[in-house]
C-alpha cells in the first residue's frame, strides 16, 4: 500500500476526549473514528488489524471443532421473552419497533437465538454434541461508553455455544474452548490469563474470564506469576491432552477481585503472588440447562426419554482486543504491534523522494513485500516519516536513503527494541518476511 494514496488520517495533537493510551493512539494513528457515543468507524489500517485478529480467532475456533455460522444482529423480542431475559436485561438492551409495531432488539448476545436454531434442527441424542460460533457485531447500551473500543456500545464479538448430553461431555467442550482461547491469545502475541470469574447475566456456575494485564484495566486481578511466562499450549484436543492442560491451568491461582479467595491466595508462595489490573478480553461459561429447559429444547435420549442439553457459551471481544493489545504494547512514540496482527509487517521509508536509486530500491521492496508492506512515499521530511512509522507501530521499518542506496544497503529497524542494522535489500526482505 502506498501511503500517498491511502486514507491514514493521523493526528499530531492529542485528542482531548481520550483518557487512556490505546484510545489516544487509535485516534492519532488513524485506525478509527467515533461516529456516535461508543460507535466507531474502522478506517483502512484499523480494519486490517481487526481482520487479522478475527482470522486467528476463526482458525482456532475451527481447530477446536466449532462450526462457523452467521446469525443476524437484529432479534425478535419474543425470542427473549421465552427465556425470561427480555425484561431482565434492562436498559443495556437497545429495543427497536418496526413499522408493523413488532418489537425487535439489537442483539447483545445470542444464547436465545442459537437455542431456537438448535431446537428446530436437532431432535435426537445422536446429533449431539455440537459447537457453533459466529463473529458478529453486538450492541449494548452501556451507561458510560469509554476508553474507545474497549467499552463501546457497538462492538465485534466472537461468540460460541456448545450443546452436550450430560455434564461430563459439557465439561469437555468447556476445556476445548479454554484451550482454544489460550492458543488464540498466544498466536496473537499477548498474555491473557484465565481467571475464575462470576457468571453475571448469563447465569450458571463455572466461568473463566481472560484478562490482558494493563494498569488501565477495569478489574483488579490476583494471579500466580507462573502465568506470565505463557506456557506452550500445543497439547492436542484429545481427552488426555485436555485433562493435562486443564489441570495445569486451573491449579495455578488466578482470580478477579469478585472471586478472590483470601485463603487460597495465602497458599501461593509469596514470591509468586502478583496483583494488578486486567482488561477482560474474553469469558467462557458453563450454565447447564438454563436455556434448553426454559426454551423447551429437548432431544430424544438413547433410552427414549427427553433430555435437555447442557450448554455453554464462549465470548471473545474481537474489537476490544485491538485496544487491549495497544494498552499492553505501546511506548511514548506509539503502538508496538505483535507481528501476527500488525496491519503491515514493515513500513518502507523513502528518505529522499525523487532520488532515482532510492526510489528504485523502495519500489523493489514494496513489490516484494506485497500486502505486508506500507510504502511511505509521501513528500515529507525524514523526521515526519520516522514519527509516523513509530506511531503506526509496524514491527519493522526499512529505511532507505540516498547514501545507502548508492551501495545497495538499507537500514532495518525493529520497532519493539529500537535495534537498527545496515543490511542488503535481500537480507532486509528475508528478515521482515521470515520473522
Ligand atoms: P464487561 O464486564 O467488560 O462489561 P461482559 O462481561 O459484560 O463485559 P461478556 O458478556 O462476557 O461481557 O462478553 C464477552 C466479551 O465481549 C467480553 O469478554 C469483552 O471482551 C467483550 N465486550 C463486552 N462488552 C463490551 C463492550 N461494551 N465493548 C467492547 N467489548 C465488549
Ligand atoms: Mg464477561
Describe this structure in words.
The chain is of the alpha+beta class. It has two domains: 3-335, BirA Bifunctional Protein, domain 2; 344-433, 3-Layer(aba) Sandwich (Rossmann fold). The chain has 14 helices and 23 strands. Strands 3, 7, 8, 9, 10, 11, 12, 13 and 16 form a nine-stranded mixed β-sheet that branches. Strand 14 and strand 15 (306-307) form a beta hairpin. Helix 1 (21-28) crosses helix 10 (318-328). The longest helix has 22 residues, at 167-188. The mean pLDDT is 95. The structure holds adenosine-5'-triphosphate (ATP) and magnesium ion. The site of adenosine-5'-triphosphate has 16 residues, from strand 8, strand 13, strand 16 and helix 10.
User: Into which percentage range does the β-strand content fall?
Assistant: 25-35%
Architecture per CATH nomenclature, i.e. the level-2 architecture of the largest domain: 2-Layer Sandwich
Q: Tally of extended strands?
A: 23
CATH superfamily of the largest domain: Bira Bifunctional Protein, Domain 2
Q: Into how many domains do the coordinates divide?
A: 2
Q: What ions, cofactors and ligands are bound?
A: adenosine-5'-triphosphate, magnesium ion
Largest sheet: 9 strands, mixed
Q: Number of DSSP helices?
A: 14
Task: Give the CATH level 1 class of the largest domain.
Answer: Alpha Beta
